[in-house]
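quick one
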Amino acid sequence: MAAKNVKVNLPEGTKIPVHIGMIMDGNGRWAKKRGLPRKLGHREGAQTFRTITRHAKNIGVKYFTVYAFSTENWKRPADEVEAIMDLFEKYLDEVRDFIEENIRICFIGDRSMLRPVLQQKMKSVEEDSRDFKAMTLLIAINYGGRDEIVHSARMLAEKVKAGELEPSEIDEKLMNDNLYTAEMDGDIAPDVDLIIRPSGEQRLSNFLIWQAAYAEYYFTNILWPDFKPKDLEEAIIAYSDRHRRFGSL
Ligand code: FPP
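structure w/ farnesyl diphosphate:
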């Protein structure tokens, strides 16, 4: 089913966040409420993912990062993990629709533990969309914020070991430039401006912990499969009304 294209409806002068992070939470509860298996919640959540990604682009968001699977999600029952991985595979074929919309697709996280066929498809989608400029969609799979920081530290340690870098040269910029969000062929995602978490939970859950140092947070009780384009607009309006000081007055 094609993602719906919904008209953007934001008040004149709304500040649009450059980078939004979305924690797609509540699929399981959505299914449970209807007496359905959890995997049907994920299926519905995947539809919402398409509609909301498209709407974010239409609004003018430049980087949209979705938390699809965390380093901790492997602890779920094997059949649920399997169902989520099947969905990713299916969507990686369909995600090509986004390419037609000028959306660049990148993946962040440790891919080495994913099925080889999935890794192959991820690589090919990244290659085929690399020149698209309307928005960059970052899909976090087997992603953990702490794991990402460890990854960056390791990359820098390797450079020190090779004699290419002095420990005293390591600063915030170098740490930042070796995160997964910087591994986009020369493009580096800026810090995240707004993190949205539906489903009533008010936690970051290891998502973009480095990049979210100055982020604004928006929580709503709506479960992810019920999240609509107007809910994204409400979050952006709330963000636009806030005064970000970045430590100054
Ligand atoms: C959290 O809900 C959701 C996940 C762990 C999986 C998210 C996956 C998708 C939305 C599928 C499609 C994604 C792509 C990129 C194609 P939960 O299971 O933790 O819900 P609960 O808290 O209600 O149990």
